[in-house]
Structure formats: structure tokens, C-alpha cells
Design brief:
mainly beta; five-stranded mixed sheet
């Protein structure tokens, strides 16, 4: 044949909302299990199912770059949904002690970088956008992100991710708190609305037979938490 059928070939990921943190699914406590999946080359959407009761899955939401009969939240920055969702709890104000469960996704794959130039934090339960990072991003982000909670207090401190232009980004790492006091490493401002996107590294281009190519990051970095700094390992 002359064509190839694209399917839902993203990897589904699970968020376990464990209210009392006992590691046991107890519906009476309000525990939930949420499945979030992208389509990868099959499309530009993500969808979520409540699978707390395995034999009775419930549709929750779908996010897409354009509106259709199934889309609940339109996120125009989305490209093909290659980035596997990564879950964490973020603060949304300086006095937030509860946090909001989100999945972080890269904006997605686009061969000409016309879409996907973003990192997005989406509410796990509603699909609503909590924060979109686009400033300075000029290449698509097909990779999953790497989430860091360096002080192990249950709130995300920062996020690392690479793009298809060979650039490495860090979201977060604000070192001045709301009162203006300096935070010592590894402490960070955990309010996601205070974060910014900072480009840490750009890989050099290379030339073959007079054609210049850009290295691409398709996978997230590995992070080693050293004393006084984060050590990142990244491959194109």
C-alpha cells in the first residue's frame, strides 16, 4: 500500500492520588487512579481516564490544539503528543500548603517547529492549564521532562527538559522567596507562577556536505543531586 495507518502509540502513564499516603487504594478515603495518554504520531491530543475502578473506567478530559467534539481544553501550542506525561504537585501561590496535582508535558513534535514550542503544566483532574512556558522557546519540545523535588517535601522544585534544537531548559530555580530572602541550594521557590524558563545549554550544530544540522533532544536528562549543584547527563 501507499499509506501507513497511525495509531494511539503514546505510552499511558498513571497518577495515583493517595490521600493519606498509605500506599493502598482506598476509594472511601478519596483515593483515585488517573490514566493520562498521548497519541504520539497518531495525533496532537492527550486524554485522561479515571480508572480507580478498573472495570468501570470514566472519561475525564481531552486537551487538543483545536476544538472538536471531544476536546475539553484547547491548547494551541500543542504539536504531535510525543511527550509522556510526568506527574507532580506544584504550589500555585506563595502561601499554598496543599498544592495542585499536574502533569508536565512538552509541547510536542513538529518537523518544522511550527508547533510544540512550549512546556505545559496541566491539572490532572480537569485538564485545565496551570501554567504554559513559551518565552524564548523557538524549537519544538518532543521530549518528556525531568521533575526534581530536591528537598523531598512533596512539591516540585524545578523541571529540566531538552528541545529539538539541542537546547536544555530549566523551569524554576528561583532563589529569592516572596519576602525577598535568599534561598540556599537546593531550596527553591516552589510557586509555579514565579518560575521562568531559563536556557542552560545549546549544543553546537554540525555540517555534512554543506548542509548544517541541529542536534535534537528526544529524551529527558538524568539528574544526580550533588552537594551544591545538580549534575545533568544528556544525549542527543
Amino acid at each position: 500500500g501507499s499509506g501507513h495507518q497511525d495509531y494511539v502509540d503514546g505510552s499511558p502513564k498513571i497518577y495515583f492520588h493517595d490521600v493519606d499516603a498509605d500506599g493502598v487504594l482506598d476509594i472511601d478515603d478519596g483515593d483515585k487512579v488517573i490514566l493520562v495518554c498521548g497519541l504520539r504520531k497518531g495525533g496532537s491530543s492527550y486524554f485522561a481516564l479515571d480508572i480507580t475502578v478498573p472495570n468501570d473506567p470514566q472519561y475525564l478530559w481531552q486537551i487538543s490544539p483545536t476544538s472538536d467534539n471531544y476536546t475539553d481544553v484547547v491548547i494551541p501550542e500543542l504539536g504531535q503528543s510525543w511527550s509522556e506525561p510526568q506527574f507532580g504537585v506544584v504550589k500555585t501561590s506563595d502561601v499554598d500548603t496543599t498544592g495542585t496535582a499536574v502533569c508536565f508535558i512538552g509541547g510536542g513534535y513538529s518537523p518544522d517547529h511550527s508547533a510544540g514550542k512550549a512546556v505545559i503544566a496541566v491539572n490532572v483532574f480537569t485538564g485545565a492549564v496551570v501554567r504554559t512556558f513559551t518565552s524564548g522557546m523557538n524549537f519544538s519540545v518532543a521530549s518528556s521532562v525531568k521533575i526534581v523535588d530536591a528537598d523531598d517535601n512533596g512539591f516540585v522544585d524545578k523541571v529540566y527538559v531538552g528541545d529539538l534544537g539541542g537546547q536544555l531548559w530549566r523551569l524554576g530555580q528561583v532563589t529569592i522567596d516572596a519576602q525577598g530572602y535568599t534561598l540556599t541550594f537546593p531550596n527553591c521557590d516552589e510557586n509555579i507562577h514565579n518560575w521562568s524558563a531559563e536556557r542552560l545549554f545549546a549544543a553546537p550544530t554540525y555540517t555534512i556536505e554543506s548542509t548544517t544540522y541541529t542536534r535534537k533532544f528526544f529524551y529527558p536528562p538524568s539528574v544526580t543531586l550533588e552537594k551544591g549543584y545538580d549534575l545533568l547527563f544528556m544525549g542527543t
